[in-house]
Amino acid sequence: MDIQSSLPSPGPEQHLARLEAEEQANERLYKVLDIGQAMLQSGAEVSRVEDSLRRICLAYGAERADVFTITSNIMVTMYSRQYGAPAGSPASSTTCTGWSCSTCCAGASARRA
Length: 113
What we know:
The chain is α+β, with helices and mostly antiparallel strands and 113 residues long. It has one domain (12-112). 47% of the residues lie in helices and 21% in strands. It has 4 helices and 3 strands. The protein has helices spanning 3-6, 12-41, 46-59, 108-112; strands at residues 64-70, 73-80, 92-100. Strands 1-2-3 form a 3-stranded antiparallel β-sheet, with helices on one face. β1 and β2 form a beta hairpin. α2 (12-41) runs antiparallel to α3 (46-59).
């Protein structure tokens, strides 16, 4: 018996709340990626970018944040029940692979399109 089948199905209000939480998490992730992009473009060391982005995610309420950065790519995953995890699951994860060297001059609006 899997855990999903034993959970009650969410009502419309719960579904809407979860969608709003996921949208908020994605907005925050894009802000984090914008900060990381600016840091890398300004010449910050990769380890400083990773540490700073991880701290920002935790300040946004993530229970855990995984950040992987190289000079041409940033990948951030935030884990938190606050961001829409269903009851009974350990935590929700929202991953965003954002900045890459092909989009550095196009800006954040092009990346989201």
